[in-house]
Every structure is written in structure tokens, then in C-alpha cells.
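Journal club side-thread
Mid-discussion, someone asked how the predicted structure for our own chain would compare to the paper's figures. Pasting it here so we can look after the session.
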Amino acid sequence: MIFYAVQPPMTHLAPTRTPSPLLLTISSLFVATLVASNILAVKIAAVGPFSVPAAIVIFPLAYLFGDVLTEVWGYRVARAVIWTGFLANIVVVLFIAAAIAIPADPHFTDQAAYARVLGESPRLVLASLTAYLLGEFLNAFVLARLKVATNGRFLWVRTIGSTLVGQGVDSAVFITLAFAGIQPWSVLLVIIRDVWIVKVFYEVIATPITYALVIGLKRIEGVDAYDRDTKFAPIPLASLRARLRGAEQ
């Protein structure tokens, strides 16, 4: 009797690439500042003559890290991190809601304050997430297109120009969706203006930091992405379909 060894079918797997530690660090900082800003935003602070959410102390950093991601690694990477931040925000909101819903111990007397500070209304959550997606994707799109248009020169034009557009839309959408019908438009327009001005000013004074990060990361990573042939759809449906077809084969 002759026995034949049966060989298992060969599978062809694409080689895996180890993610860059610096890319993971910048992405983590982006998501962390984003999540923290949504928790801090419940307080309205006075910054000189301006009335702005307290998240102003950290939220513009999310745009700074978003600029760095797009400038160094390109729009595709920035898009993936933007969606990661969106998912992280939803996860945090759900866990905060669960923590508020858990019955408080009789010795804990601050349940009402805990729920009032951390518990956002569905309207505020929707306003925040919508404004975030629109603002971040516009910021990344404008920066990527300006980089190609300027052939990589004038980084300050790209970072400030993208912030003018992204932060303007973010501020207008969030304030409108969150407070329209509650506050008069005369007040809302002032808040939108103040928040936008402060955020853009933040970006301007942070420009040296952005320059240092971008130059250092490009040198260390050996990468400088140009989105000349990039499809800028926020959801890359064509790419997803291609990957699904490849997985089926």
C-alpha cells in the first residue's frame, strides 16, 4: 500500500508592515486630544474678550496633529486616523452614558453633578460628531490640495489656510446644531466668530511647532506624501470594494 502525503493548499498572504512608531504616536495624540476636548467642552470659558468652550485649551492641537498627518503621510493616512477618532469618540460617549446609568452608591452624593457635567445630550453629541467629521475632512483636503498646488512650498500657507476652512466649518456647524433655537442668532454668530478667531490664532502661534514636527518627521521617516492622484472621498468605497474582491479571490 502506498501512502501519499497530502500537501495543504498554499495561501498567498501579503507581507505585513510594522506601523511606524512615530505615526502611531502622532495618531494617538490626535485621538487623545479629540476625546479630551469633547469632555472639556461642557464649560464655557472667558479668554480675554472672547466666550469660548474650555476645550479651546486642547482642541486646536487635534488640528495641528491632523495637519502633520496629512503633510507627512498623506490624505489616506489622515482619513484613516480621522475615522479612528470618530469611533473613539462614540466609544467614550457610550461608556460615559453607561457609567452615569449605573446606580450610585449611597455614600456618593455627587451623582447629579457627575451626570450634569459628563452627560451630554444627544443633540450635543450629534452636533459634535458632525462638526468634527466635516471640519477634519475639509482641513485634510484643503491642506493636501494646497501642498500639490504649491509644490510643497509655503507650509504656513497650507496649515493656516486649511485651519481657516476646517475650523470655520467646525465652529459654525457645532454651534448651529447644538444651540439653534435655544440662543438667539445674534448670540450664536458672536460665539461662532469668537471660537473661529481664537482657533485660527492658536494655529498661527503654533506654526513654529508644526514646522519643527513636520521637518523632523519627514527627515526621520524618510517620507513626504503628495496626494496628486488621491481620491478624496471621506469613505473610500472603490478601495473597499477592491479589497473585498481581493479577499474573495
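Post-session note: The chain has nine helices and two strands.
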